[in-house]
């Protein structure tokens, strides 16, 4: 029996992406174990989701720390005893410093609600709507020392309809986030992801490198 992938999930808000991971684990679709959920926001409903599923969870409020380094040192201190394989940023709204990233090389992934490198930063869904794009989407990528940069693992394309509001578009993107984040974790758990420069490949059974996962836009 291969060991389950041990993951930590960092959150800040409602935790619907966390829930998508919990659900896929519960349904036997994702062979992973969430060892701890950490939120920088003590009010995050994501913490309640963790509690309901008996997952260890805690708030580390960034406002309680004099510096980002001190805040991140506390995160590491609470993370490290779990010896996780992968850290998943699921709606985590704090920028992590290069020093923190270097501590966990290619072991941090993030979900962003746009087709990076388009629309980095906050309110990416609204940025896309304001711009008038015909398609946007979401991205799961390895976190590197930039902000919303790093090798892209999976993207999913989402159409923008004329009658869309920022909210209806965000909802459509979020449904795709809930699909590709667990899929990226599954790929990571399979040990088939290979990063070469800025590109992520998937190794097939014979060790050949396949192009990254392409997700057809939803019907
Ligand atoms: C999602 O769109 C996520 O990409 C963004 O915040 C939204 C809510 O995430 N960062 P969640 O429900 O807290 O997972």
Fold and architecture overview:
This protein is α/β, with parallel strands linked by helices. Helices cover 32% and strands 26% of the residues. The chain is built from 6 helices and 11 strands. Helix 4 links the parallel strand 4 and strand 5. Helix 1 packs across helix 6. The mean pLDDT is 94. Bound molecules: 5-O-phosphono-beta-D-ribofuranosylamine (GRF). 5-O-phosphono-beta-D-ribofuranosylamine binds next to helix 1 and helix 6. The site of 5-O-phosphono-beta-D-ribofuranosylamine has 14 residues, from helix 1 and helix 6.
Helix content percent band: 25-40%
Mean pLDDT: 94
- Uncertain segments are none
Succession of helices and strands: EHEHEHEHEHEEHEEEE
What characteristics describe this protein?
globular; binds 5-O-phosphono-beta-D-ribofuranosylamine; 219 residues; three-stranded antiparallel beta sheet
Element layout with pairings:
Elements: E1 5-11, H1 16-26, E2 32-39, H2 45-52, E3 57-59, H3 68-79, E4 86-89, H4 98-103, E5 108-112, H5 124-131, E6 135-142, E7 152-159, H6 166-189, E8 193-196, E9 199-203, E10 209-210, E11 213-215
Parallel strand pairs: 1-2, 1-4, 2-3, 4-5, 7-11
Antiparallel strand pairs: 5-6, 6-7, 8-9, 9-10
The protein binds 5-O-phosphono-beta-D-ribofuranosylamine.
